[in-house]
Each structure stands twice: as structure tokens, then as C-alpha cells.
Amino acid sequence: MFGCECFCWHKHSDVVEFPLLQPQPFSLPSPIPEWPLGQGFATGKINLGELEVVKVTKFECVWSCSSLRGKEKGLSFYKPVGIPDGFFCLGYYCQPNDQPLRGYVLAARERDTSCPEVYCDYDSDMDFSALRKPVNYSLVWSTDYGNGCGFFWLPNPPLGYKAMGIVVTDTANEPNVEEVRCVREDLTETCEIMDTLLATDANTFQVWTTRPCKRGMFCRGVSVGTFFCCTYFVSEDQELEIACLKNLDPSLHAMPNLNQIHALIKHYGATVFFHPDEDCLPSSVPWFFKNGALLYKDGKLKGERIDYLGSNLPSGGTNDGAFWIDLPREDNARNNVRNGNLESAELYVHVKPALGGTFTDIVMWIFCPFNGPANLKIGLMSIQMNRIGQHVGDWEHFTLRISNFTGELWKIYFSEHSGGEWVDAFNLEFIEGNKPIIYSSKHGHASFPHPGTYLQGAVKLGIGITNDAARSKYFVDSSTRYQIVAAEYLGDGVVTEPCWLQYMREWGPTIVYDSRSELDKIISLLPLLVRFSLENIFDLFPTALYGEEGPTGPKEKDNWLGDERC
């Protein structure tokens, strides 16, 4: 199955030909348990309305390539195998060779919607059927250097249908039209390019992963797992010649029920480690309120004590600047709240559909009463700032993405200040069974998959804010210390949202830093040969150096309804 050869397609004199070790399949550290009984979660199949799909994870390598003299990662292209009877391939899969084999493509079959348990055995040329064979194929690109050949084919769909992926062969013969199926256009949504997997010299041939254009809690686009390739420039907003599927089942039956959610969190709940020198630890929201947090209203000098449940906070609306929360005024109480209270800390969980209900996002929010000052790095110099970076009420999060086909942890999103990144499960650290580790950075509480120092700013110049992450005795185990605060898809009354979650205003006052005076002192310490002008220095630093509006709560963040930023 993995006996492919690897070839380059640069100049003839530069062609390197050698056997390439194929990636091996990845498994989580521990077996996946049997989940509590439910409707359609982790049953291996998902109903999308007129279609039922399965996730195929077994592949046969068709063709592999390596960059010049093996200096860069290679890429392999795979045909899905072991497709269950009655299901049809929609396209092929590809991935880099420097990571474990852990992808998928969907295979589909048509359902008889008048009788949900009956599956249609239509002739694929029947009018209006959900799946039809392509008319033929167009050759997108080919290479014939060395002894191996790769040919990339785009299915040409019948009128009113969409291709879902590319077919790859190792011969020049056009693929059989039985190889894949196209999908009726009203059962699809547009997709966009995502990660670049391959780009030849002068970008004459490029390969990308794809994803639905519209993503979020209420979006229905389903990723097929296939790739897109072409020999022309593709803009970000350009409609591709392949599409993704659409989930037209309003019940989202493959989403986990409440018992299954608890089981998932107990099995996959991450341990969040804080830096050994962290002095701005998390707390529970009720602890923050009980220990003197004050609600301020625009135009009033005196703050109001907040009920420990947040019942006297203004509910709903938008962040109009009319209200904000601040620390207690008394120094002792203020310092106590700034330091947080690890014993009370818990993760606040929002569960929502992702990628049309084929995945579940378990978003875990952590609250810190205070965000400490930033640490500035300029070359080899590391300088602790006095006030820059400080603010009241810090909300950070990470997201577990779970496959609804199997209940397997697929990847985790690490929120890192103004952005973040998705990290596949094979690149995570695990502490116990399948429980991953999250490293929270000192003072800023950004999430990272591994310990170390991460620079935010002009990374190539070695200038910016450092995010230091390390394991310590300070940690929160989210598999036991959590509270589910929202899961809208379960319906009214299943999960009771806390009062404070409806507070849409700022959890801290607006702060303007005197960055210029602090930076003037820093610049004066630099050697003359490496000094920048003051204005250039300011341009290189993150905008958070200059001031911050008070942070808003989870429901005001874009990812509450939308997908994560990356």
C-alpha cells in the first residue's frame, strides 16, 4: 500500500529519485471509550439530509513527490480505500510526508428522504439524483520526470452538479467515470483554499487544502477532506471548481447530547499549566465578584458591588461603553483580586456545531481577574515593563474540535492574543491518557501547545512582546473543574446560562499607557549601531503597547458564533 517512489520535477540535472518513507497512521495515546448512548453521535455515519456520509481514513498511495534534494518536506497523494458498500468516493486526499497519516475524505450515498431508513440504488445518470458520475475529466497537470508519473484530473460534472475533489493517477489514461461522484448543486456550498501544500517553481502548479467559505455555529458547510490544485493564480475570494457539502438535516443529529458532552470533557479535558512565576492567576467568576469587583456606569464616580451570580449586571444589548467592571478600590482588596484564586478557578464551556455539525467544538474559557505587565524583548535584551500590557478582566480560551463520526479529538485551537492556531492532535502533548496539555503564558495568559518563549511583534528582528510558557505547580484540570455555560443546539432549558454570561459590556476599564516614556528609556540603552528611531520602534511593536479598551466577555467575541481566527 505504501510502496511509492518520490521524484522531483525541477531541472533534469536536479532531479532526485529515491524511495520515500510513507507516513504511518496516528493514534491517540489511549483507546477511545464507548460513549454514552445518544442519537447519532460517534456512530460512524452522519445524515446530511438527502445524503449520508462516512469518513474514510484508509488510503493507498498513488504518487509522491519531494522537493529539491530532500531539503523540503515532500507530499503524497492518496486514493481512499475500504469505502463501505453503497458509498461513493468524492475525491482523493493528500498531505505532507513529514507528519503522521491522519486525514480523511468523505464518501457519500443517497438517502430516500420519504423513508429515512431506505437508501437509494439509483442509476447515477438518473435525473435529479443527489449523486451522479462525472461526464469526463480534464487534465489539470502532469509530471513525467524519473520513472514515476503523476496525473491530476478534475471531474467535469453534469449540468447542475459540482465536483468535490481531484483524482490522481500514475498513468496518462483518463480515469473511469465510476471513480468518483459529483453532487447536485443545491446540496453543496462554496469552498475556499486554506493551507498551501505544494507550489512548484514560479507557482506553475499549486496544491491547497480546502474548507467551507462560511463557517460558524449556524453555517452548514461540510468539509469533504479533499484538496484543490490548479496551474493559475487563485485569489482569496475566487470560487473554486470544486465545492464542499451542505448539511440540510435541521436536527444536527450527530451532535453529542448532554451526557456525551460530559463524557467528552472528562476524557479529553486539558490540564492548563501556568508559568512558575505567574502572579496573575485565574479565578472563578463568582470569586471575582464576591471579593469586591465593582460595576461602573458612565457618568457616575462610585462603583456598585456585584452580586456573586452577576444578577445585577446589565443584561443583553451591545458593548456601548456605558458600563465596565473594575477591581476594588482598597489596596489590600485590589491586590488580592489581582493575584486571582487558583483554588476556585474553573473552565467555562461553550459547546457548538462546527463544519455543518460533522464536528463539535468544545470551547473552554478561562477567566483571570488581571492581565499582568508585558515583557519586552529587543535583540538579546529582555525588559519587564512597568504598566504596559496590564488590564482588568482577562478572558482567554482554547477549543477542542471533536469528530462527530467517532468522538475522536481531532485538533485544538490555541488562542494567542489577537490570533491563534489550530494544532493537530499528533502535535500535542498529553499528560494522562488522551488529556492534552495547555501552556498559559506568563501575565498574558495566551495558550500554547508546548513550553518555551513565543515572540509577538517583529519576529525576524527579535523585537516584540515575549510570551513565556512553562509547566509548574500552578494548574487547572479542566476534565474535573468545568461548568457548561452554553450549548444552544441542545434547545431551551437543557443548559442554564449564568447571569454574567449575558453581560455584553467591558470586564475592565479602558487603559491608555504612557508607552513613549517607557520606550524612551529603553531606546537610550541600545547601542548606537542598532538604535532605531522612536517612530520605527513604535511601528514594530504590537498595538497592545499603546493602550487597550476593557476586554469583553465570551459572548462578545467573534468565535462565539463564528469559527476561530487563523
Automatic annotation (TrEMBL):
InterPro entries, from UniProt? Answer: Vps62 (IPR009291)
Q: Which Pfam families match?
A: Vps62
Q: Which domain of life is it from?
A: Eukaryota
The protein's name in its UniProt record: Vacuolar protein sorting-associated protein 62
